[in-house]
Amino acid sequence: MLEFLTQSVKHFRHTGSIWPSSPLLARAMTKSLEDISGVRRILEVGPGTGPLTKGVLRRLRAGDQFDIVEINEVFCKLLEKEMLKKYRARHPHVSVRLHNAPIEDAALATGYDLIVCGLPFNNFPPKLVRSIFRQLLALLSDTGELVYFEYAGVRVMKAPIAGTAGRAHLKRIDAIGKSLRRNHAGSTELILGNFPPALTIRLKREGAEKSRGSRGKSARAK
Question: Taking the alpha carbons of 100, 103, 105, 110 in that order, is the dihedral positive or negative?
């Protein structure tokens, strides 16, 4: 907890919070893993000290592949020492890889069944936000799901003190989120038990939606 607070103050742009996510939020973010049969590929982006990582690790089974991407070197060392090294020793048949890099530079293959993202998008330039979401959605399998979260009402609360430029920035981020939910079968869930309350957002890969639509049109044509 102390290390999280220290790094949050130093690197608030990349952490976006001074409080780790709760187990309730972790369960909500990872619950869809139970519905995926066979060997699964999971990606987590921006784990921090690992509260969501723990939620994923609890649900992994033999043969699964779990990739974790974290830009902060201190967090990476902490994750490896306190969590991942011990997990690998107990579960040798699960692949868990930690990448110390920004998501834009991480060398990752496509085809993830679930991507869990904890990046603080409200802190990023809109151009970067759009670029990261394009990358994450492209990394999904056709039936994969991208889950991210934000603190409930955060942009509304920030707006009065953000200044003109800050309010314009928040409006652009909000518009990006609405567009993503509209175009990628988005759904939301409010997690009141988190501190502060959080909103999880689930997105599907656009290709999966298009392919289903195309099959439906072909069937009707026949």
Answer: positive
